[in-house]
Amino acid sequence: MTHKPIRKAVFPVAGLGTRFLPATKSMPKEMLPINDRPLIQHVVEEARKAGIEEFIFVTGRQKEMLEEHFDFQPELEQTLESRGKNDMVAKVRASEMKAGQLFLTRQPKPLGLGHAIWCAKKLIGDEPFAILLPDDLVLHDQGCLSQMVDTYNEKGGNVIAVKEVPRADTSKYGIVDIGAVEGNITEVKGLVEKPSPEDAPSTLSVVGRYILQPDVLDHLAAFETGAGNEIQLTDSMAKMIGDRAFHGLKFAGQHYDCGSRLGFIEANIAYGLADTEIGDNVRDILKNYS
Ligand code: UTP
Q1: Ligand 1: which atom is nearest the Cα of residue 112?
Q2: Where are the domains of the chain?
Q3: Taking residues 256-261, what's their average pLDDT?
């Protein structure tokens, strides 16, 4: 059976990024760099690898820098060319979004991730779509979303990225109630946002990558608040369970929670080590700290 292709991806970038204050006072969290590119570029590149054609940003106040980053920068390119810095020209060009690929909508108030996705309703339309949270990076050649698209092509319905976490940490994440398990694919029987360790149905947590059917937008339209008094995506996803296939993929690759300061520092080390130009030097520097 063939399933509708995943052509669109939503990037919610309207959050306040309070954990990184004061860095995020006037700078969007999603523009903080991991190695040589901002978080948002890492996830846009991952989406491109997965075949995404339309990139939908849900932005908010003081987030203009995000759209600027993907623009054509003629003066910069000319200056680099005149100085013979062709490798840098190539890097700058690779960060440009082609005409007709980038779409923007705004979330007037950061009322929660679920609300941010609802704000993109018109741009998503009536087709299955992907969501990528720029906070979550997965270091892997194929990319996390591309692995999820493979699972979606096999199973259809909804697919979310999942990983095991320590039981003590379940109250930080959306947690899966696990059904039948087939290799690295798990049937999702239920979803709970930020349960306490005693109430958590498992220790399998949701990572910020989703392939969802557009029905989720109808559930989000109820604007019900959940954990933290925010409109949670997890609660609306939970309402779709039973309607059609719903699976979690234990993806390959190392995941970094770049929304936390420690995860952000670790990701910078890991991406630095994996870089062909500076990896060996990073390894040498780290010896000074062991
Ligand atoms: P987070 O849960 O990390 O929230 O959002 P945050 O506001 O960015 O950061 P902290 O917790 O205050 O430090 C995950 C992703 O969802 C977006 C964020 O921009 C981030 O990319 N988001 C979150 C929205 O777009 N709108 C919201 O209302 C909440």
Answers
A1: 28
A2: 8-287
A3: 96
